[in-house]
Amino acid sequence: xxxxxxxxxYLLRDGLVRLLETFGxxxxxxxxxGPETLRAILDHRPDVAxxxxxxPPTNTDEGLVAALEARREVPGLPVLILSQHVEQLYAxxxxxxxxxxxxxxxxxSVFEADQFLDALERVAAGGTALDPVVxxxxxxxxxxxxxxxxxxxxxxxVLALMAEGLSNAAxxxxxxxxxxxxxxxxxxxxxxxxxxxxxxxNRRVLAVLTYLKD
Amino acid sequence: xxxxxxxxxxVVLLALVAVVPVVSIVxxxxxxxxxxxxSLTNVWTWIGWxxxxxxxxxxxxxxxxxxxxxxxxxxxxxxxxxxxRQPGPEPVQLATGYWWNxxxxxxxRRDAEMDQQWRRRIGDPALWRDVRWxxxxxxxxxPVCAVPPAALAGAVVAFTRRSPFAIVIGVVLLAIAAAASxxxxxxxxxxxxxxxxxxxGAAAAERVRELELQRADLTRAQAAEIRxxxxxxxxxxxxxxxxxxxxxxxxxxxxxxxxxxxxxxxREARKGTSESLTELRELVRGVHPPVLVERGLVDAIRAxxxxxxxxxxxxxxxxxxxxxxxxxxxxxxxxxxxxxAAKHAAVGKAQVSxxxxxxxxxxxxxxxxxxxxxxxxxxxxxGIGRRLNxxxxxxxxxxxxxxxxxxxxxxxxx
Lengths: 214, 414
Fold this sequence. Notes:
Chain A: Keywords: DNA-binding, Phosphoprotein, Transcription, Transcription regulation. The complex is a heterodimer. By secondary structure, chain A is α/β, with parallel strands linked by helices. Chain A has 2 domains: 2-131, 3-Layer(aba) Sandwich (Rossmann fold); 141-212, Orthogonal Bundle (Arc Repressor Mutant, subunit A), CATH 1.10.10.10. Chain A contains 11 helices and 6 strands. In chain A, helix 5 (113-124) links the parallel strand 5 (102-106) and strand 6. The N and C termini of chain A lie far apart (36 Å). The model of chain A has no long low-confidence stretch (mean pLDDT 86). In chain B, the strands form 2 sheets. Chain B has a 5-stranded mixed sheet. Chain B is α+β, with helices and mostly antiparallel strands. In chain B, helix 1 (2-34) runs antiparallel to helix 2 (43-76), helix 11 (297-307) runs parallel beside helix 12 and helix 12 packs antiparallel against helix 13 (380-389). Chain B folds into 4 domains: 2-84 and 124-198, no CATH class; 85-123, no CATH class; 208-287, Up-down Bundle (Single alpha-helices involved in coiled-coils or other helix-helix interfaces), CATH 1.20.5; 290-412, Heat Shock Protein 90, CATH 3.30.565.10. The two termini of chain B are 42 Å apart. The mean pLDDT of chain B is 85. Chain B has helices at residues 2-34, 43-76, 109-121, 125-139, 141-161, 164-184, 188-195, 200-257, 259-287, 290-295, 297-307, 324-343, 380-389; strands at residues 92-93, 99-100, 105-106, 311-316, 349-357, 360-367, 394-398, 405-412. The chains are: A alpha/beta, B alpha+beta. Chain A binds chain B through residues 53-54, 59-61, 64, 84-85, 87-89, 92, 106-108, 111, 137, 141-142, and chain B through 270, 273-274, 277-278, 281, 284-285, 290-291, 293-295, 299, 302-303, 306-307, 309, 311.
C-alpha cells in the first residue's frame, strides 16, 4: 500500500515508517505539522494516511483537523488516526460523514503489529477500525431510540465488534460461535436498524452509525 | 405604595440619626422650661450638653452604625463591611513573666486583658467611623429625612386651623410630603457608602489576609498533587520500565541458546510497555486531560459528558478559549460535580451551561437528582469552592430537598 505518515515526534515517525516498510508497504510521504499533513495527503492521494492528533504549530488537534479537512476535499479518503488517548468525541466527529475508511486507535496498538496492519488494510478498503475502549464507551451510552432498544444482548456485542472493524470470521472467533451464526446476527441487526444496502462493508459502517446517531 | 414605603423609611432613618442629638438635648431643654439654673443661657449647661452628647455618641455609635449598614444593604443593596476588630487571642505568660496579648506586653494578666479590651472597644478605628457617622448623619441625612414627616405634621396642624389660607398651606405641605417621601431615604446609600465604608487601607489589609490564606491553601494542594504524581510514576511506570529492561536484557542473552524463551520474554516486555502506557495515560488524564489542551474547556466537558453514565447536555456561548489555569480549574470542578451527581442512582439527566458576559464566566451544572446537597467544610464541594477562590471565583449551591440541584460557578475573566 502507499501510505502517508504524519507524526511530529521524530522517534515515533521513524519507528512507524520502519515498521511499515518491514511489512512491505511504501511510505510515500511523511509530515510533521498539520498543514504539511493536508498537503501530503492531497498531493500523494495515498491508499491510507496514518495521522497523529496533536501536532505543531498549535499543538492542539491539528492532525484531526487536517484529516477531517482532507476527507471534505476527497470524501472517503482512508485515514487512520493514532493518538495517545482516545475520545468518543473525536470518534463521533470522524465517523459523522458516514463515508467509511476511518480508523481511530491508540498508539500502543502498533505493538500488536499483525492486528495493526490488519486494521490498516481494513481502513484502506473502506472499512472501520475503532479502538475497543472507544467502542465500549460508544455502545454503553444510554439509548432511548426504540429500534435500538430492540437489539438483543448478543446482537449488541456483535455490533460492538463490527464497530471495531472485525470481519464476520474474526467476530466468530472472538465470540466462539460459527461464522453462520454471526452472519444471522448481523442480518437481524441490519433489519432491526432498518439498513437495506447491498454493499456489505458499507452496511456494517451504517449499522454502527445508526446506533450512534440516537 | 412607593410613597408610603418611602415615608416609613424616612421616619426610620430620621429616628436613627436624631436619637443621639435628641437624647442629649432633652436635659438642657427640661432645665430651661422648669426655670432651674441649668438654663440655655448658662455656659455650664452647654459644657454638660457636650459631655452628654459625647457619651451618647460613643455608647450608641456601634449599634446605630450596625443598623445603618444593615438598612443600606437591604434598601440600597450596598454591602458595607463593618471592619470591627476581632477578639484577640488569650493572653499568654512568657518566660520573662510578662503577659503577651497579641499586641503588647503587660505586667499582669489583668492588664493584658484590659489593654486588649481597650484596643478592641475604644482603640478600634471602626468605632470612630461610627461616631463620625453620628455627626455626619445628623447634619446631612437628618434634615433631608425630616422633610416628609415635618411637612405632614405641618399639614395636620394647618388643617385644624379651618381657615381657607391654612387649608391651602396644608394642601401644599401635604404635596411636599408626598413628593419628598420616595426620594428622601435614597440619600442613605451614597452617604453611608461615603462615610461608613472601610478606608482603602483596611480593605487592602483584609484582601491581603484572604490572599495569604488562599496561597497557603494552594501551595499545600500543589505539593500534595506533586507528591501523588511522583508516587504514581515511581511505583507505576518507572518500575514497569525497569522490568521491561530486565526482560530485554535476559532475552538478548537467551537469543541464541533458547530462542523460544527469548521470544516469550520479548512478548512480556511488550506487554509491560503497554501496561506502562495505560498507566501513564490515566495519570496524564488526572493531571491535565489531553482534550483540554487540544480543544479547550467546552469540548473537554463534552468529551467528559459522553463518558458519563448520566445523560449530560452541554450548552455554551463561549466563542474563544480561556486562560489555561481557569480552564483546568473549571474542568475539574465540573468533573467533580458530575461525578457527585452520578453517585445518586436517582439522577438521570444533567446539564452543563457556559455563559460569558461582562468579564465573568458563569458555569451552571444542574441535575434532576433528589437535591438536599450541602456544602460541608472540607468536603468535595468545599474543595471546588476553594479551587475557584484562587481565581476570585465563587461556587453557590441551590439544592432544595426533592431537587433539582443547581451549582453555579462564577469566575472573573478578562
